[in-house]
Amino acid sequence: MSIAVFASGNGSNFEALVERSKRQGWPEMITLLVCDRPGAGVLDRAKRLEIPSAVFQPADYASKAEYEKEVLALLRERGIRWILLAGYMRMVGSVLLEACRWRILNIHPSLLPAFQGKNAIQQALDYGVRWTGVTVHWVDEGIDTGPIIDQKPVLVEPDDNVESLQKKIQFVEHNLYPAVVRKLLTGQVSPPEGDGGGKGEQD
Ligand code: GAR
């Protein structure tokens, strides 16, 4: 069994995950990138890192369920157990959630439950918080509402803007996400309700 990363954009977290997995020789490796945007920078990174990628455009399908059924078929074909959302800018729907319950993780650029959804860094700046941060959590039906696995704080300085704060947040993300995934693969983090880790995707 192995890991798929889902991403929509630049892909710096994807690259950090792949590099760490190779350096540390994880028990399950990243063998697939799923991308929902043709032309996204993450696809160039996948090519350079020699990770197979698949592009699915939701607009090509009659419904979200049809889109996700196609994605799920590929995940099954490739023996994927874990799904890591890394800048995947859409909600996971019921087809994937039900088939992959507690096998989907997400990284979010705030200390959840603060600043859920899009533009979390801008939201933190607009609110004027002194501290924001990074959260890795399980994915459920809500927007950034699933059980929290780990978090790290990031200090907001008075002269920070979206770019400078994003840089600090991403530096933290690139360490936290691989660390959490490694813990998951080595049994130091368990899925909620304990029904994800030991089972294959087909269950
Ligand atoms: C990351 O900062 C991630 O936390 C955020 O998108 C960025 C993707 O960057 N995700 C969300 O905002 C999800 N709500 P990357 O493409 O360079 O990894």
Automatic annotation (TrEMBL):
Positions that bind N(1)-(5-phospho-beta-D-ribosyl)glycinamide: 11-13
Keywords of the record: Purine biosynthesis, Transferase
Active site per database record: 108
Highest rank taxon of the organism: Bacteria
Annotated site (Raises pKa of active site His): 144
InterPro entries, per the entry: Formyl_transf_N (IPR002376), Formyl_transf_N_sf (IPR036477), GART (IPR004607), GART_AS (IPR001555)
Binding residue positions for (6R)-10-formyltetrahydrofolate: 64, 106
Uppermost EC category: transferase
MF annotations from Gene Ontology: phosphoribosylglycinamide formyltransferase activity
Domain Formyl transferase N-terminal: 1-181
Pathway stated in the Swiss-Prot or TrEMBL entry: Purine metabolism; IMP biosynthesis via de novo pathway; N(2)-formyl-N(1)-(5-phospho-D-ribosyl)glycinamide from N(1)-(5-phospho-D-ribosyl)glycinamide (10-formyl THF route): step 1/1
GO cellular component: cytosol
Annotated catalysed reactions: N(1)-(5-phospho-beta-D-ribosyl)glycinamide + (6R)-10-formyltetrahydrofolate = N(2)-formyl-N(1)-(5-phospho-beta-D-ribosyl)glycinamide + (6S)-5,6,7,8-tetrahydrofolate + H(+)
GO BP: any one term: 'de novo' IMP biosynthetic process
EC number, as in UniProt: 2.1.2.2
CDD domains the record matches: FMT_core_GART
Residue intervals passing through the bilayer: none
Function in brief: Catalyzes the transfer of a formyl group from 10-formyltetrahydrofolate to 5-phospho-ribosyl-glycinamide (GAR), producing 5-phospho-ribosyl-N-formylglycinamide (FGAR) and tetrahydrofolate.
Similarity field: Belongs to the GART family.
Protein name: Phosphoribosylglycinamide formyltransferase
Organism encoding this protein: Melghirimyces profundicolus
Lineage: Bacteria, Bacillati, Bacillota, Bacilli, Bacillales
Protein encoded by which gene: purN
